[in-house]
Amino acid sequence: MTSMKNVRTTPTSATPNRLKDRAACPSLREQAVRVWAQALFCSPLRPTDRPDAFTVCQTIVEQLTACSALPGGCAELVAHEAGEYPENFPERMAWCQSTVDRAYSTLLTPLRTASL
CA geometry: angle at 48 spanning 43 and 53, to 5°? Predict the structure, then answer.
């Protein structure tokens, strides 16, 4: 069992300050949206379902779990689908990216505001 006196509570040089954290967030968000859009792309969810933010996030988590068994993850399935149905790929991926971006904003804005 770890004693409390061994737990580090002060920031280390590896811990960025709040300003650096905020500067890194846009690129982190872009990467998250890209990965989550791939997961949504692989899911059965479609624009006609008109999913809310919670449904989108729940679907993404389920799909990331399912794709984790594949060597290339969801990206492998996306590449396959893009090759099989190139005419549908741009529109579907654009929908996935905008839907994920909207869900990300909807669910994370309250968290971001609370931490300021």
Answer: 65
Question: Which pTM was predicted?
Answer: 0.71
**Structural domain span for residue 34:** 28-115
Tens digits of residue pLDDT in 7-57: 444 444 444 555 555 555 668 778 888 999 999 999 999 999 999 999 999
Q: What is the CA radius of gyration of the chain?
A: 18
16 within some domain: no
Amino acid (1-letter code) at residue 31: Q
Residues 17-43, buried b or exposed e (16+ Cβ, 10 A)? eeeeeeeeeeeeeeebbebbbbbbbbb
Q: Please state, in angstroms and rounded to a whole number, the distance separating the CA atoms of residues 37 and 100.
A: 6
